Amino acid sequence: MAGSTDDNVLVRVENLVKYFPVKAGGFIRHTVGQVHAVDDVSLVVERGKTLGLVGETGSGKSTLARCVAGLIPATSGKVIFDGKDITKLSRGAMRPLRREVQMIFQDPYSSLNPRRRVGAIIGDPFTIHKTATGAERKRKVQELMERVGLNPEHYNRFPAEFSGGQRQRIGVARALALRPKLIICDEPVSALDVSIQAQVLNLLADLQHEYGLSYLFIAHDLEVVRHVSDKVAVMYLGRIGEAAPADALYERPRHPYTVALLSAAPAADPDAAAARQRVILVGDVPSPIDPPLGCRFHPRCPKAEEICGRVEPPLVPDDEAGQPEDDGQSAADANKPGAAVPGGSLHVTACHFPVVPGERLASPAVAGAAGAMKGEPS
Amino acid sequence: MTLTNVDLSAAIAEPGAKTVEGRSQWQLTWRRLRADKVSMIALVVIVIMVVLAIAAPAFAAITGHGVDTAYPVTGENAVGNPVPPLTNGFLLGTDSVGRDVFVRILYGARISLFVGVVSTAIAAALGVVIGLMAGYFGGFIDTVLGRLTDAVLAFPYVLLAIALAAVFGPSLTLIMVLVTFFSWAGIARIVRGQTLSIKEKEYIEAARSLGAGPFRIMFIDILPNLLAPVLVIATLYIPNAIVFEATLSFLGLGIQPPTPSWGNMLADASNFYQVAWWYLLFPALFLLITTLAFNLLGDGIRDAMDPRTERLIAARRMRKRREKAARRETGAEPPGLGTIPDTVREPYGG
Hints:
The complex is a heterodimer.
Chain A: E1 9-24, E2 30-46, E3 50-54, H1 61-68, E4 76-81, E5 84-85, H2 91-98, E6 101-104, H3 118-128, H4 134-147, H5 164-176, E7 182-186, H6 194-211, E8 214-219, H7 222-228, E9 231-236, E10 239-245, H8 246-251, H9 256-264, H10 270-275, E11 316-317, H11 329-335, E12 348-349, H12 364-375
Parallel strand pairs in A: 3-8, 3-9, 6-7, 7-8
Antiparallel strand pairs in A: 1-2, 1-4, 4-5, 9-10, 10-12, 11-12
Helix pairs in contact in A: 3-4, 3-5, 4-5, 5-6
Chain B: H1 2-13, H2 25-35, H3 37-54, H4 56-63, H5 101-137, H6 139-154, H7 157-168, H8 172-198, H9 202-210, H10 214-250, H11 262-269, H12 277-305, H13 307-330, H14 336-345
Helix pairs in contact in B: 2-12, 3-5, 3-12, 4-5, 5-6, 5-8, 5-10, 5-12, 6-8, 7-8, 8-10, 9-10, 10-11, 10-12, 11-12
């Protein structure tokens, strides 16, 4: 048992990089730059667990998800799924793996083909992988529909005849059809009404429990991520800034960006909302074509100092790692080599000056950040 | 969970519940098309034309006039000119050598409709495949197919037709090849554009993540979304094909006499219109009505496929209903347009 640290790891992403070329020129097209969508990201997804991935628009969450799903090739780095590196596989060799990794998409309106009947959409996985045909296929599809809370009688309807929540259930049924090990949820509820979000999230939780699924759950809604995730990683401009078990991250955020992000989320409890500090970031997210040197967050960081603009801070475990919520088990986990990777059991932060609990990030930050912005090449 | 269970049992328990069958896009389109009078008239005209063409031998038998048979006794007057319509059993008169114009027009319709429909169908199939490949694969394939399409669209087609007819000799096959050759490019271009926009949809990515290959995605996932525009453009291309065939036959490069076609009848009639106006008028009329009907039907289908049209029709229906209700209430003059526009015309008061 001792040596096989990967036993509980389903997906291991190692130093994943994805650049998109920026092309220009009308007649002879040439590459003039690269969008650093995902830049040297490592993480792990544990079996039967959920890794939440948060970050604002353009932070590279979805690109990362598509690389892990094998939908787009990575520029470099590895995605090791169940012990196999899938980044180098050909399309044919990738095929059996498609059964193991499925995706649920953000927009339930554009993720279902409007011209095909629901039965055909949910039955597609069976047809493509030739696992069931005819009456058996129909029976399986109807079972799936019932399992996700749809009326199996609606087998012959078109997606347009369903509500947003029902459509997302169709998407869940399609993803579930081949009994995958990993489901990548790309903002699965952000297009839904809040009342419907809970239903879909509970459905996902039930299914995880029932089938032992692992989720890579992407969202920008922090409360949703906290609700569903075991571990959470925060992305900013293609890098992971901080990652930890969900409660640790939300209760003791250490990266100034995480602090700002958490402070921006509305709180349900007005007293709590009044009590906590509100960190307002200045400026926009820098262009991913030309990301800042050093720490990616330093131009906007309230705590930034000179070194932040020069030296990229590595992801390091928290000093008091595993102490507060320790129960022996996590101490053992902490000693495993994989623990310090985002998605592992440790609280890791990439910051030269991590926030200590109780510290207030005050408004002087505004002036500092604005100054730093000026120094930035546009 | 409980909520959905309730839904489910209610739906199942409901006595005499109708079988749940989604109304497809096509059913909706047909419903809208039926509400459009112009389209329905055009459709009826086309159906009549097709029936006439199919039943051409039957009409020939009824009149007793063969298609290529000249009737020098009954079909020509004392000085050897064609006889006018409704003379000696010639419904639309006779032509320059005393053949029955009506029967020849019906046989001409067979050629026109056959060339129009079949060539366009082949061209549509070709255009869909080429457009799909260009749009879906992009890159080098797109460049090659795109240039090919441009080249075809830039071709002076009458010139090519004359040259080819000179080389191979005019024939029905040549006409169909030419019509197909010049029709696919326009369809391919439209299909390519549609494919480019559809392939960015999330459901295509979903299909890829399920492991679907490029051909499955093209023909199972993208094609059904293309059928509507392709149907519209194909319907609009049929009259073009018919006119093209008529043009070639008119120039003597298409259907060769004595086989009748609208085009070669018109060519022959142009020498005789001073003595036999019916010989020129009726083939031209059939050509006009047929192409017009296809064009109007194509427009109608396009409108019917546009979801915005539904609202227009609904609004019109609603207005009618309101007017009727108002008439019933007052029992007098219908309010008509006089009362409502007053407020519309002067929204800020006088």
